[in-house]
Amino acid sequence: MRSSSTTRRSPAESRAVRQLAAVRRAVAPLSPPVSSFEASIRSTPFRILVSVLLSARTQDPVTEKAAARLFAKADTPGKMALLDETEIARLIFPVGFYRTKARHIRAICRELGARGRVPPTLDGLLRLPGIGRKSANLVLALAFSRPTIAVDTHVFRISRRLGWAGGRTPAEVEKELQGLFPRRNWSGVNQVLVGFGQTICRPVRPKCAECPLRKECPSASVSVTSNK
Ligand code: SF4
Predict the structure, then answer these.
(1) What's the whole-model pTM score?
(2) Domains parsed from the chain with CATH numbers
């Protein structure tokens, strides 16, 4: 794992940093859903936590509207804990697994207690119901500006397509990316690659002809239908 941005970069590290910047430039004008979603939840750590939980297996525009309905009804853990699960489920429908998420949201609100303080550590977040490593890393980056890399399906797929990582699990890919990028890039990797995955490097039929990395991507001609 790289510990300092002043460490001399290997050619692979320099290439990855350059490629990430090229992707960022290509995606910005396309206004991917993730940009609007992350802008909409940048307020309190509690709102970020709940929105990240809602976003699992759900498209960003659907999550954004569900979170708005829920927070219009109850905007603190104390108020939200007073809603019953059925009411929370009704408010967040149609996000994926809305019944399970409603149960987790209520349990989280009770866990956070009267002060409603969201834990600012990986271990603390992982102890909350329904919060896995990817979600915890995303909350740490968005709510507490911590250098973390949240590996979701987009980050996992694209990192492997580009040859940045070869790991078979999100945890393995996270470790490889931490070794490849300087810390200052870590928290940006998720947003850039999610936007890239929503617009150009899509799961199926990626738009390689429109990709700034098409001349150097090892998967440019083979990933048309695969989910590699
Ligand atoms: S060339 Fe195609 S597969 Fe490679 S990163 Fe670009 S869009 Fe994805």
Answers:
(1) 0.87
(2) 11-30+149-210 (1.10.1670.10), 34-144 (1.10.340.30)
Compute φ and ψ for 183, nearest 5 degrees.
-55, -35
138-150, pLDDT tens digit by residue?
999 999 999 999 9
Q: Is 32 in the pocket of ligand 1 (CB under 6 A)?
A: no
- Say how far apart CA 201 and CA 84 lie, in whole Å: 40
Ligand 1, pocket-test mutation among 211, 225, 226, most atoms within 8 A of CB: 211
Catalytic center residues: 134, 152
**105-118 tens-digit pLDDT:** 999 999 998 677 99
Task: Determine if ligand 1 sits within 6 Å of the CB of residue 193.
Answer: no
**Listed residue (215, 218, 206) closest to 165, CA to CA:** 218
156 pLDDT higher than 50: yes
Q: What is the reported pLDDT for 209? A: 95
Q: Is the beta carbon of 219 within 6 A of some atom in ligand 1?
A: yes
Provide the token pair at 55. 């976003």
> What is the 8-class DSSP label of residue 218?
T
Q: How many residues does the chain have?
A: 228
- 217 CA from centroid of ligand 1 (Å): 6
Four-residue CA torsion sign, 77, 78, 81, 82: negative
- The residue whose C-alpha atom lies closest to atom 2 belonging to ligand 1 is 208
